[in-house]
Amino acid sequence: MNIGQIRYFVAVYQAGSFSRAAREQFITVQAVSKSIADLEHELGNELFERKSRGVEPTPFGRAFYCKAINALNSFDDLQGFATGQGSLQDSSTLRLALCAPSFKDNASVIANIRTLLIRHLNSPIELVLAEGFKGMDLLRKGEVDALITLGTLDTPHTDCIPLLNAPTGVGLSVNHPLASQECVTLEQLSNYPVAVAQDFDYFNESILVTYLRAGLRSPLETIYRREDFQPFLEEKNGYAFSVVLPALEDDRFNSTLRLICPEDAVEIPICLVSSKFVKTPLYLAAERLLTGKLPFKM
C-alpha cells in the first residue's frame, strides 16, 4: 500500500461517498474507486459496503480507519516540515496564483493585480494564472505560497481567508437579448445556457455554484476549449458569470458585462488560500496586511 491509497481511503471514509471524496481530492471518481479496489485486494478485506446513496465502512474498514488516520496525519506533518524547510531557503519573494477561468487579457490583469499587491505589501511578488486544479497542484508542490480564489475553498489541507466581497455579473454577447438591460435576473438567465469551466466550477464555491444553490435553472454547458467560448456566446445566446472588479475587466470575446439585479444579487468572496502545513514568514506577513482591512480594491 502507499500513502496515496491511505489518503483516498480516509477521504472516502469521512465523505461517505466516492464522488464527494473525489471532489475533495481533486481527482476523478474512477481514480478513487480504483485506488480503493487495489487497496482492498492487497489487504484481502473489503473496506466499504457500496450503497445506492454512497458507501458505509465495514467493521474491518472502521478498524483500519483508526490506524490510517494517525498514519496520514503523521505523514502530513512530516511532509509539511520537510517542504517548509525547503521553502524557507527562498522566502524573499511572495509567490501567488490567481485561480480563475482563462480569459483574453490575462497578462495585463495579472500585471495590474501584481502592481496593486506590491504597493501594499512592499515586497517582490510573483503572480501567475492557474485554473482551480492546476493552482492546487502548485500549492501542494510548494511552488506557490497561496492561491487567490474567486469564491471559498474548503479542503482538509488548506486555510481559506476571505479578503473582500465582490459584486457579480454575467458576460453576454453584445447581441444577446438581455444585453440592452442594465441588470439581469436569475429568472431571465434561466432561459439561456450558462458556461461551466471544468477546471474551475468543480473546484470551489464558484459564482456559478453559488447561484445554482440560489435557484438558477439555466442549462449547463461545459466549455472545454477557449476557442469554443465565443460561438457559445454568439450562436447559443450563452453567458458566463464573473466578478465585477476593475482589475479583472477586459474586452474578451466581444462581450458586455451586466450586473445581477439587486433582488437576486449575491456577492462572492475573494479569498486567500494557503496550506495548513507550510506558511513562510513572508506569506504570514502578507496575510496580516491583506486581512487588516486596508482601504484597497482589487
What does this 3D model show about the protein?
With 298 residues, the protein is of the alpha/beta class. It is 41% helix and 23% strand. Strand 1 (48-51) and strand 2 (54-57) form a beta hairpin. Helix 2 packs across helix 3. It starts with a helix and ends in an 8-residue tail after the last helix.
User: Radius of gyration from the CA trace?
Assistant: 21 Å
The helix content, as a percent range, equals 40-55%
Q: Count all strands and give the number.
A: 13
Poorly predicted parts: 85-90, 293-298
The amount of beta strand, in percent, is: 15-25%
Secondary-structure blueprint of this entry?
Layout: H1 3-15, H2 18-25, H3 29-43, E1 48-51, E2 54-57, H4 59-88, E3 94-99, H5 106-121, E4 125-129, H6 132-140, E5 146-150, E6 158-166, E7 168-173, E8 183-184, H7 186-189, E9 194-197, H8 198-201, H9 207-213, E10 220-223, H10 229-235, E11 239-243, E12 255-260, E13 268-275, H11 281-290
Parallel strand pairs: 3-4, 3-5, 8-12, 9-10
Antiparallel strand pairs: 1-2, 5-13, 6-13, 7-11, 7-12
How would you briefly describe this protein structure?
With 298 residues, the protein is an alpha/beta fold.
Short descriptors:
298 residues, alpha/beta, four-stranded mixed beta sheet, 11 helices, 41% helix
